[in-house]
Design brief:
four-stranded antiparallel sheet, Tetrahydropterin Synthase, Chain A, 9 strands
Length: 292
């Protein structure tokens, strides 16, 4: 009876040891097989594996993407010595389990602290080269590309891959914000004054050009008018001369009619003349001077 009990116990112990000899690794994890705290095997592919029971143990490492999300924003100084609050997050994953274990062991906190320290240092270096405007708007993407490049190179040394580094937000401190507003107001005022000055100069130039063109046009028009008046007077004189040559008496009569018309254009007009004056010659006798 004792022998049967011993055999049964041995079988059960064997079965228990047999079941302890196998372990699985899924696609989410990598595994390291330890023997007396020394890494013997590194397993990075999913499957069923064998270990020596009671002598070896298995530690699994999460290969999924991890996130380091800062709880409080970092206070960083820009090239203008102005403080901003930068809130970041880092996404990373284990790329090489062997490197990772040798660098940080089983202490994941050590890995995250190293990544956090690298990113914060790079942020300070990059922000220190740039202005507030650059880090908030203009060159923010450039900063993050450079930061990720350097951080990924450092993370590779501990078997980690940086998936992404992002600035969730960048805010100005109250004192910095007031200083920036004052500077922006001053810059805009300076720019506005410059534009007004340039506009006034352009307006003066345009007015000067317009006045010059006006004088040129008026002078040209006056010269043309004088020329045309001279030509008209010459033609009129020629016509008068021709008319006088053909019939001097008729010409005299015509000129007298014009004189009468001009002299008595209004009822209120008054002239004081001797009735026997030559002026009334054609008024007294339309045929005077032999007119027919």
């Amino acid at each position: 009876m004792n022998r049967l009990i011993t055999i049964a116990a041995a079988v059960l112990l064997g079965l228990f040891a047999f079941f302890l000899s196998f372990f699985t690794v899924d696609e989410k994890h990598s595994a390291v097989v330890f023997q007396f705290s020394e890494a013997k095997r590194i397993i990075q592919k999913p499957g069923i594996y064998f270990k020596v029971p009671f002598l070896q143990e298995v530690k699994r490492f999460d290969r999924r993407i991890q996130t380091i999300d800062e709880s409080t924003p970092a206070r960083i100084q820009t090239s203008e010595k102005m403080n901003v609050l930068a809130d970041t997050y880092i996404k990373w994953q284990i790329a090489d389990v062997e490197k990772y274990y040798k660098a940080v062991g089983l202490n994941e906190l050590k890995a995250t602290e190293r990544l956090r320290s690298t990113v914060n240092k790079m942020l300070r270096d990059e922000f220190g080269k740039r202005t507030v405007q650059d880090v908030i708007t203009g060159k923010r993407d450039e900063v993050m590309r450079e930061l990720r490049k350097v951080a990924d190179a450092d993370a590779e040394a501990i078997g980690v891959r940086i998936v992404d580094v992002r600035l969730k937000r960048v805010e100005l401190e109250t004192a910095t914000l007031n200083s920036v507003y004052e500077r922006m107001r001053s810059e805009r005022k300076t720019e506005a004054n410059k534009l007004r000055s340039e506009g006034a100069a352009q307006a003066d130039k345009i007015r000067g050009d317009a006045d010059k063109q006006k004088e040129i046009v008026l002078a040209d028009a006056y010269n043309k008018a004088q020329s045309m008046m001279g030509e008209g007077d010459a033609k009129a004189a020629a016509i008068y001369a021709a008319a006088y040559g053909k019939n001097p008496e008729f010409y005299a009569f015509y000129k007298s009619m014009d004189a009468y018309k001009e002299s008595f254009g209004k009822k209120s007009d008054v002239m004081v003349l001797d009735p026997s004056s030559e002026f009334f010659k054609y008024m007294k006798n339309p045929r005077a001077g032999g007119a027919k």
